[in-house]
Fold this sequence. Notes:
With 284 residues, the chain is mainly α.
Amino acid sequence: MSARTTRARGALLLTATLTALLSPAVATPAFAIDKEHRQMEADLRMLQEQSQQLQNLLGSITDAIKALNAKLDDQANANRKAMADEKLIVDNLTNDVRVIREKLDDNNVRLGSLSQEIDALRRGVQQIASRPAIGDAAPGAPADSATPPGAAQNAAPVGVSPQQLWDAAFSDYTIAQYDLAIQGFQSFIQSFPKDDRADDAQVYIGHCYMQAGKNDKAVEAYDMAIRNYPGGNAIPDAYYRRGVALRNLRQLDRAKDSFETVIKNYPDSAAASLARQQLAQPAR
């Protein structure tokens, strides 16, 4: 074998050896690069998924915020409406209170005026009652059956209406000023004998006497009402109260007769119902 052939084989052997040694070194970086590339792609996909999740979460939060804002707006509108309604109610109540206060003030003024008028009438009635009768009745002249014994013979002051005189007398009766009430009712009968309440006034005189414990005078007053106003609407009560006064005086037969009379003549009246109750009670 020539030297040239030997050198050629040596070169080939050296080349093969170098190729074998260098091949792993070249392949290793390429494999590493591919693996790193795949890892980066995986990380990128993960980042993309996380980004999508974040976007979805952000969208949900945005929707929740929108819903919350809508609820807050609705609540704010409801609060504004409620406040407006409450303000309207308060304004209406304020107006009502103002109107009521004005009416109360007006009523107070009217009550004050009425009290002054009643006081004036009471003083007038007292003056009338304190005056002596003007003149004596002519000899043989019949007595006025409508005038109760001992009543003042003077009429009410000029300008006093029947209602005013009645209110003054009735006011005295309600506060248990029975003497003043009797004077007032007597004055009413004398001043307005044709008034529809004349029989009521005479019956109230009997009530005043009975409330004061003067049952005998009460019987006289009721008898006068029955005698002078036989068709009056207060007569059933006069019969009943007369019976009560007679019963208080222990005149039981006369009391029974009075109760039976009101039951017979006025069976549907409240006085008749009370009279039946009196008759149903045992004698005391």
